[in-house]
Write a structure and sequence with these properties.
172 residues, mainly alpha, elongated, transmembrane helix, transmembrane
Length: 172
């Protein structure tokens, strides 16, 4: 008799869509408050906490669906899958934001990043202009970086959650 095993891909997709949706809602909230160019560590922490909570819930629900059993491998797959799906959604949102909604977003972000260095005299106006121009020119290179970093974070979150929740099936 064949048992119906839950699929890690299904949980990755569902919870990745949830996390991606939450990220887009959070991004829209930041945009409406004109905080979308902020480099605040608090905003990064909020994003990581959202990812940790959704990943934990996704892996925990997989374990429940799997009759209380979870391997570390399954937790890693789900964590990385959730992160990958949510990163793809975040990249699509960022593409829409920077190309349709507010095409000046890259320029605003670079002003926020480089402005303090210019004001303090660490860089000249020419250096500021050159760095800003080059950064905007190669803005697209950030998207693969977003994917890679998100998957690494997803693997770490999956590992931590897996170590907490893992329970092997009995050998018999």
């Amino acid at each position: 008799m064949e048992e119906n095993q839950p699929k890690t891909g299904k949980f990755s997709l569902n919870y990745g869509l949830i996390l991606g949706g939450l990220s887009v809602v959070f991004g829209i909230m930041l945009f409406t408050q004109e905080l979308h160019t902020s480099q605040s560590p608090a905003l990064m922490i909020i994003g990581i906490v959202m990812a940790a909570v959704v990943t934990f819930i996704g892996i925990s629900n997989f374990r429940k669906a799997n009759k209380g059993f979870l391997t570390l491998s399954e937790a890693l797959k789900i964590g990385a899958g959730i992160a990958l799906i949510s990163a793809i959604i975040a990249i699509v949102y960022n593409l829409v934001l920077t190309n349709v909604i507010d095409p000046d977003t890259p320029s605003k972000i670079m002003d926020a990043r480089l402005g303090p260095a210019l004001e303090s005299g660490e860089i000249t106006q020419e250096q500021f202009d050159l760095q800003k121009e080059q950064s905007i020119k190669f803005w697209w290179m950030g998207y693969p970086f977003i994917l890679i970093i998100n998957v690494i974070i997803g693997l770490v979150l999956g590992l931590i959650t897996g170590l907490i929740l893992k329970k092997a099936k009995p050998a018999y």
